[in-house]
Structure formats: structure tokens, C-alpha cells
Design a protein that fits this description.
Two copies of one chain form a homodimer.
Chain A lengths: L4 H12 L8 E3 L6 E3 L5 E11 L11 H17 L4 E12 L4 H17 L3 E10 L4 E11 L14 E4 L5 H15 L7 H11 L5 H9 L5 H10 L4 E4 L4 H12 L2 E5 L11 H10 L6 E5 L10 E2 L2 E2 L1 E7 L4 E4 L5 E4 L18
Parallel strand pairs in A: 4-5, 9-14
Antiparallel strand pairs in A: 1-2, 3-6, 4-6, 7-10, 7-13, 8-10, 9-13, 11-12, 14-15
Helix pairs in contact in A: 2-3, 2-7, 4-6
């Protein structure tokens, strides 16, 4: 571990320097606060997401690089869900004393690799050593042209409901990692190595795709921005806590209900269709986008975006609640059963 | 505790609604991210500070209101140290399962009372229940007119060094709280009640003043802004980790050294002068401002600000390192001995 704060700050400054030039940055890690500029005529987006050991990640299942990647991806996905462009990140990191310096280094490498790819620069944060669990909080500041942010509250009866990709893959990936881990011999190898070994031994897609979706989710910032620019979507949310939960939030904010067609929801394609559907409905952390499109705006929406199909999975209705139409035509009421921090505070025991 | 996230968000939205109107706020708690606007021609200040149970506060010593107040005060003080105006706050809160709903409510009341007084609105955050320690991370976004931010790096040889108030009071307050607690009967009463009882039993100033300075520090935002507007200060930092540590940081950033006059440093006025000086030099969390003033700018600086004297405690020199001139004329080298997260990760054992 680093011996002094100065040593840590110097190391992080060197690591955080981006490959290119950062336009708006005036001052970075090392002063009292970060100082940045935004483009004129933009609104500022601010979002913060925690990643807590044993709640959002498990040290023996998640390699340090993936913990860093996932911690930033959660906030980037929130910016995507506003139709904005992420610009700056601040990372607060309370590192468990039990972790080695190597873990911190790998954590930041994972986080910064994603940040650089999305044009996001690390401009500050806070750090402490703690006796207990590792705790991470990532703040991302982004921008969106004035009046162009896409909110949860704009859905209207008759709008089509779309998702931007296959759902339930992350939850399946976690299940695979956990079941593989359960079979692993003790003493367990290093987390990162275990993960690579685990991945190598897993059957090929969809298993590898699922594990990758869980460890290294790809925020859909370009799509969010596209939907905002085109004026195509009436409401937008990211799928961080599961379709059933996040769609409920969108409907509640918009004062509407929804009808979903189970057969149209793109799941992880398991042989057991009920299992696939369950993962797609309630599995969280896919970080795909869920958005609604008014009938007259449908021509603005392409069939695919960046090579990935956009799936219509249902439509908004005036009557509150979510109705799920099963392949046999029966209709069931769908309750939010995804991630709720007040109901399911522990990673173990959820979503599998 | 709250049963669902919705319940918590609704409660927090009601609580966070400010008494007045929030000019720049477009969208608050409840969407994917906060959306805010800044004044034109301003730069954005971003700062984040963690408050961790058993590191930054102790449940039995610090009432929930004080934990909330102190958590926000740390970030407000960072904005003050840039000469900026704080505008928005995001709070990430991982609440220990052992705490009751009442604690969370009191925590936010303490935080919001300070926020409202400083015109800062709570616009978002993240929340989780955790099995271990309570963890808080507060992000504050502020603004400063373009080019007007006061950095740590502007001090030059010959500049006078000022502090904005008495130092070491917070460390003394913590010591008093702790020694009183050590004498308290078991079982201990509620933290908040203990604190009020403890305060009532303590002798009058400076003890009460010290306990209050520790529990409810007052960020010096108005002074920071004044120094920026007047162009009076060449460098500015807030005293969060102790004079010896924070002055070292300012000197390092500016590439200079300093000479301090021990007899001029305003300490907590204890009968034991060496003890007073030690607290003033190394005690943290006073959140006063430390700033440097070039000789030709001295006329821009008033003797007092908001009724509180500004103390010149030394001067910047070209030679690196900090030299402390004792009352008997002897000169000692002063090493940073304040708060360093990498050296002193535990609240117990430091600063007393």
C-alpha cells in the first residue's frame, strides 16, 4: 500500500493523465477541488453511484479491474440515461486494509481504461484506508444541450417500449461465476486469476458473453446521445436494477402503465425459457437503455444502432401497473422484483 | 428503517425541498441523474469528501445531526478554499443496518440545515443498507467566475501567511468529548443525548466553544469568495488536516517554504501553552482558511472579516521546508504531523 497521501496522489496523477488532451480541465487531483469548464448552452448532469464490497461486488468473484470498470460504468450509464455526454469523474475510495497496493492499481486501471474510452477524465476524489469492507463512490459530471435531457417522466399511452439489447446476461454471468467458484478447489487462487481461469473453463457463448457482460458492462452513452439529438424518445431510463423495477420507475414517473410481450423480450437464450425470461425481467446491471417512442416519432428510430438491434418489447398504456402477456396469451401482473437497496442489501442471495 | 427505495426517495424529496426557490435546478432526486445549470462565464468546482464511521466519526461521540453537518462542511470548505460558491450537493450514504431510521432522519436534517444556510441544494446521491460501518460520501458542485479560482500554487517568497480564525479548537473539542465519554456511566445513553448532556456539564468557553467547533464547524465560504473577488490572496487552502500538513501542501504546490511565528498562531488558549501550540499546529478539521497575501495586495485585506480577526502567522520564503520561530527565538523545523489517511487511518489514536 502507499505510504503517504503524497505518494498516492502523485501515482494517481500520472495514471489519470489521459492519452489525449482534456479540453475543459483547469486543475486536477491535488488542489482542494477540481475545476472544470462546460460547453456553453449546456446543462450539467451530476450522478453518483456506490460500489460496496459484499453488496455490489465480491472480492473472490470480481477481479479488481472489473470492480473499477463496473463502478464507473454505473455512473456512465446514468449519464447515458439522460441523453448526455460524460466528461469528468471523481472517485472516493475507502480501501480495505486487507487489500494490497496491487489491487488499488488494478482497480484504477480498469476504471481509467473505460474512462479514457468514453472521453471521461478522472479529476479528483478522496481516499482512505479502512479496517472493514472496501467502499467506492463514483461521481460523474456530464453535459447535455439545454432542454435536450431525456427524463423518465415523458412516456405517454400509445408509446412503444424499446430496449437496447439482450437482458439478463449480467445476472446469468454472476450466476456462472458463482457456481464455478462454488466448485473451485480451496485454497482459492487470486481473484483475477480465478476469474480468467473460470472464464477459460466456461463453455463458449452465451456463457462467456454473459460473464463478460457481468464483469465489463458497456454503458450505452452513444445511443443515449443519439436518442436525445434525434428527439426520438419520449422517456429514457437505464436498466441497472432489472426491467421489472426500472420500467416501474419510468411508468411511475410518467403516470402511466405498460403492457409487455414476454415473447419479444430478448433474454439470455437459455434452454429453460422460464429461467431466461426471469433473468431478463428481474436481472439487474445490464446497463442497457429502456426508452419509449411516440408513434409519430417512430420513423426517427433506426432498426439497429451500432450494429445492435433495438427491440420493441411492449407499449405504454394509460392504466397503471405492468401487464405481462405470456406466449400462450395469458396476462399476468408484473411486480417490480429487481434490485431494491432497502429490500435486498446483500449481493449474496439476490438475482440467482 | 425505510421499507422501500420509493419510500426513502419520497421522504428525502420532501425533506430536501429548500425553503426558497432553487434557481438553477432542473430536476432533482428521483431521475437517473441530477440536472443543473450554472451561471454563464463560470467554472465548475467539483469536490468530494468521505465520512466513515470509526475513521471520521464515532457513533457514540458524534450525534447524527453533527455527522451530517460535518460531512457537508468538509466539502463546502473545499469550495471555500477555491474562492467559489457552493451550489449543489449529492450524498451517497451506506447506512449500517444497526442504525435506526431516526438516525438517518437526523443525519439529513443536520446536513440540510447547513446546506440551506449556505444556499446549497441536495440534488441526488445513492443509498444502500450495509452490514458493516456507515459510510458517507458528499459531493459538492460549486461555481467560480472564470479565472477567479484561488489555487494552492500561487504563493511567492515575501507573501504574508494568514489564517482566518483560532486553530486547534476542533481537536480540543474531540478530546473533551472523548474524555467526558470515558468518564460516562454505562450503559451509555443515546449519542445525541449524551452529547447534549456532555456539553451541559462541560465548563464554559473555551470548552463549549471547542466542542461546538468540532461538532458543527462553520465553512468560511463568504471569506473565500471575498478573497477571490478582491484579488487579495495569492494562494488559498482550507485547514482540514492541520496547519502543519496543509501549509506543507500549499508550499509544495507553490514551490516555496515558510517561516511561522509560534507566538502569533492563534491556538485554543489552554493554560498549557505547549499543548495549545501542538493543537493549533497539528489538530485538523478546523476548516478555517489559510492564505497568502503579496505585500502590494496587503491594503486589500481588512483586519477583520465578519467580525473575526484575520491573523498573520508568518511569511513565505524561497527556501523549502517550514521553520517555526519559538517565543524564545529558537527556530525549529516543522514537519507535517496532521491528518494523513495513509498514515493514520483510524480516528482513535490520532490528534489527542
Amino acid at each position: 500500500m502507499f505510504r503517504t497521501e503524497n505518494e498516492f496522489v502523485a501515482w494517481l496523477q500520472a495514471l489519470a493523465a489521459p492519452p489525449g488532451h482534456a479540453g475543459g480541465l483547469k486543475l486536477s487531483i491535488g488542489d482542494d477541488a477540481a475545476l472544470v469548464t462546460l460547453k456553453g448552452r449546456c446543462e450539467l448532469i451530476l450522478t453518483t453511484d456506490m460500489s460496496i464490497e459484499d453488496v455490489h461486488f465480491i472480492h473472490r468473484l470480481h477481479p479488481a479491474e472489473a470492480v473499477g470498470h463496473r463502478a464507473l460504468a454505473r455512473s456512465l450509464s446514468d449519464v447515458a440515461a439522460m441523453g448526455g455526454v460524460p466528461r469528468y469523474a471523481l472517485v472516493s475510495l475507502a480501501i480495505s486494509k486487507q487489500l494490497k497496493r496491487d489491487w488499488t492499481s488494478r482497480f484504477f486501471r480498469g476504471l481509467l481504461a473505460l474512462g479514457h474510452r468514453f472521453g471521461v477524465q478522472l479529476v479528483g476524489g478522496d481516499t482512505a484506508l479502512v479496517p472493514g469492507r472496501t467502499f467506492i463512490d463514483v461521481l460523474v459530471a456530464g453535459e447535455v444541450p439545454r432542454g435536450k435531457a431525456l427524463l423518465r417522466s415523458g412516456a405517454r399511452a400509445g408509446d412503444a417500449i424499446f430496449v437496447s439489447g439482450r437482458l439478463g446476461l449480467s445476472a446469468l454471468g454472476l450466476r456462472l461465476l458463482r457456481s464455478h467458484k462454488a466448485r473451485a478447489l480451496s485454497p482459492p487462487p487470486e481473484a483475477g486469476r480465478l476469474d480468467r481461469q473460470a472464464q477459460a473453463k466456461l463453455p463458449q457463448p452465451p456463457a462467456r458473453e454473459a460473464v463478460n457482460a457481468h464483469l465489463y458492462p458497456e454503458p450505452r452513452c452513444a445511443l443515449g446521445r443519439f436518442l436525445s439529438k434525434r428527439g426520438a424518445a419520449s422517456a429514457l431510463i437505464d436498466l441497472s436494477d432489472g426491467l421489472s423495477t426500472d420500467l416501474s420507475r419510468l411508468c411511475e414517473a410518467s403516470g402511466v402503465g405498460a403492457r409487455l410481450w414476454a415473447g419479444k423480450i430478448p433474454g439470455p437464450l437459455l434452454p429453460d425459457q422460464a429461467d431466461s425470461l426471469g433473468l431478463a425481467l428481474h436481472g439487474g446491471e445490464d446497463h442497457q437503455l429502456l426508452f419509449t417512442v411516440a408513434p409519430q416519432k417512430r420513423p426517427r428510430l433506426p432498426l439497429k444502432f451500432q450494429g445492435q438491434p433495438l427491440y420493441q418489447i411492449g407499449e405504454i398504456e394509460a392504466a397503471r401497473g405492468i401487464r405481462l402477456v405470456l406466449p400462450d396469451g395469458k396476462v399476468r401482473t408484473l411486480k417490480p422484483a429487481g434490485w431494491d437497496y432497502f429490500k435486498a442489501p446483500q449481493l449474496d442471495g439476490r438475482r440467482t
